Amino acid sequence: MSERIPLARPVVGEREEELVLEVLRSRRLSLGPRLEQFERAFASRLGVASASAVSSGTAALHLAVRVAGVGPGDEVVTTPFSFVASANCVVYEGARPVFCDIDPRTLNIDPAAAAAAVGERTVGLLPVHVFGYPADMRELERITAARSLWIVEDACEALGGRHADGPAIGARGHLAAFGFYANKQITTGEGGMVVCPSAADKVRVDSERNQGRAPDMSWLDHDRLGFNYRLSDIACALGVAQLERLDAMLAARARAAARYGEALQGVEGLELPCPDAGSDVRGWFVYVVQVPRDADRDRVIALLRERGIDSKPYLPAIHLMSFYRERFGHAEGEFPVCEDVARRSLALPFFPDITEGEVERVAEGLAAAVAAARTAGAPG
Ligand SMILES: *Cc1c(COP(=O)(O)O)cnc(C)c1O
Fold first, then answer.
1. Taking 90 as the threshold, does the pLDDT of residue 220 lie above it?
2. How confident is the model at residue 379 (pLDDT cuts 50, 70, 90)?
């Protein structure tokens, strides 16, 4: 019996061990020198002035929308095809995420649908660069400029991506959030980063991640409401080591994606991730295919599991989750493109050191599973 192939597996080596050990031995486990080092390395990698490390991508999104400005009764236009955190962060502040449909090619928010969803109460747009593919920011920026709305970018899946007009994803001058959970392009175990284009915004984020403490770190004066969204120095050391190998890991992910592309070519009716258009560059995060409409996706998952291959439905539509149905009254049929994609999408094992043999095993397994899961014998 061959080894199980997991969905994700981080690359962690001697350099990570060395830097983490150094922190442990220094006895400075939080708010030490690695925090600033990680922030500076991340900012310079992206080409932005500064960044603030926090405890998760969700925390990064939460602090970013607070700085952008959102409160009870406000609306934020966003995509229903995302990890739930991009909508939750709006709900945390008592505001309403207003969903709109997605582009069937990139699976990112459809700018025309976003424009149509903007209303009297809209304060901002929250696009997600889903699966690392750059959202159409030029079009979204046209919408926000005309209405003086803010943009917060959820770049949690998109480190390493780049827009056709030049900037790295997250470096267009908007607030942006990154995440470092174990399956992301770089990991700190748990962690995140807020990119703040303005220095004043960074001061506020740094304070709010630390219980609202005054910037001079005096113990007693908490001049605003804050949270404990700090990232430990242990995690920051991991982040520093991971950034050093980011280019190699991105290249390895891109190679794995290219292998999948070739290996899956023959599977009839299977839709593969869209190739980069123009000069857009995807920062490869996951490898998600869409099974043919006449195949039962969950049956495919079960058949792959029998072969020792992990896969999962990715992503489910946010508006159809029980909490969102109940709280905001959503139902099937509102966003047909998103719902169709969410029904058929399947994440395959994908990580930098996945071997050629593993990719082939997945491809063979998937071809067989899709053939077997087609509603064969059904009428018509
Ligand atoms: C990973 C991710 C996040 C952040 O997740 P955390 O687990 O909080 O780090 C946010 N949005 C999207 C789209 C993500 O994929």
1. no
2. very low
Q: In the beta sheet, which residues pair with residue 228?
A: 210
Q: Ligand 1 pocket: which of 91, 154, 175 to mutate (most atoms <8 Å of CB)?
A: 154
Last residue within a domain, chosen from 194, 213, 244: 244
**How far is 275 from 260, CA to CA, in rounded Å?**
12
**Cβ-proximal residues to 20 (8 Å cutoff; 6+ apart), any chain:** 234, 237, 238, 241
Report the distance separating Cα 129 and Cα 88, nearest Å. Answer: 17
184 among known catalytic residues:
yes
Using the mean position of ligand 1's atoms as its centre, give its distance from the Cα of residue 191 in Å. 10
> pLDDT (tens digit, 9 = 90+) per residue, 120-136?
999 999 999 999 999 99
Q: How confident is the model at residue 380 (pLDDT cuts 50, 70, 90)?
A: very low
> For position 2, what pLDDT does the model report?
78
- Is 237 in the same domain as 285? no
SS3 letters across 272-340: CCCCCCCCCECCCCCEEEECCCCECHHHHHHHHHHCCECCEECCCCHHHCHHHHHHHCCCCCCCHHHHH
The token pair at 301 is 């998952």
Strand-by-strand arrangement of the 175-179 sheet: 51-54, 192-195, 175-179, 150-154, 122-126, 75-78, 96-99
Domain membership of residue 330 as a residue range: 246-375
Q: Please write the tens of the pLDDT for every residue from 276-311.
A: 999 999 999 999 999 999 999 999 999 999 999 999
Q: Are residues 177 and 263 in the same domain?
A: no
Q: Which residue matches tokens 């903007």? A: 118
